[in-house]
Amino acid sequence: MIQKSHIGHLRWHPLNLIGNLNRFVVLLIVFLITTKSLHSNVRLETGDTNDRSNSRKNYFLCSIGLSRVLYRDFATSPLFYRGPGFTIGMAWQWQDTKREQFLGLDLTAAMPHALTPKNNYFQTGNSALFSNGNFYYHYLRKLRIFPSQKWDLKLGGAAVSAFNVRYNSALGNNSLGIESIMNLMLAAKATHNISRTQTKAWKLWFLHRTFQPVERYLSFQMNVGVFNFNYRPGYAYVYDAEINGSSTSLINYNFADYGWKMNGWKLGAKLEFSKFSKHGNGRRWAYIWEAANVPGRFEAFQMASHRIQFTVMINRKK
Fold first, then answer.
1. What's the helix, strand, coil split of the chain in %, to 5?
2. Helix (H), strand (E) counts: the chain
3. pLDDT digits over 26-73, tens only?
4. Which residue(s) pair with 105 in the sheet?
5. Which of 20, 50, 83, 147 has a CA 20 to 30 Å removed from the CA of 244?
6. Residue 52: strand, helix, or coil
């Protein structure tokens, strides 16, 4: 039997959900602007305007990707749902020889199908609509532990705020599922410079080709959740809340049994190949994997996703 924990936990009013997410985003943006302003002031005061200014890079990124989503929500059923999805995103990236900052937003839409047991007499099956909004920010600092100039290792932190919405009419009163997940994560990124620095000629019988110098990087990043917060319902999504005249709205009625909890875990990994033109613009292919276990207050939500993503990197340095 699952018993309600008597350990004190923080419950936020449901009407504050959107406001809390907005404040979370605003605080990160303020931190980003403040950090960049302080860095600029230090450079002006110290007169360091040559090496760092030449190495600073500023990109705007537009991404599209194909995703595969797998999840299950024990508040509705123990069935796994799996299916393809499509992702679009935009981001900003700032980096120099010592640090890297990344701020991005992506949206995913998928149509997963329930993985039901096979039956020779009566085969059931149903599908759901799944959407995910993901806000992400990281700040990384370079660690000088590699003697080779070809390798670069950065360590820092990341903040993630995700909002999931699912709809499955076959679940009746539990057809709509919503949760918010926030994570503060430890992030590490290793980058290998695989640029071609000299012109190379290739010849095979009558086939000839000349390869020009090109800037290329191969990187791998790993994120591990340290503080994991989630906004989940009680035992189930169906809950008859108190109706108090005009003070009860549709929003606070449907989210009356929701509450914040700090538990669970989240992992993320990203493998990227980036190639840049002589004008500074770039293209990036990436494989992105994420997995999370969200126990919530009573019934857990579990999710994993795989994504192949293509990104256009626009150089914004004037």
1. 15, 55, 30
2. 3, 14
3. 555 555 555 454 444 434 343 444 444 457 899 999 999 999 999 999
4. 90, 135
5. 20
6. helix
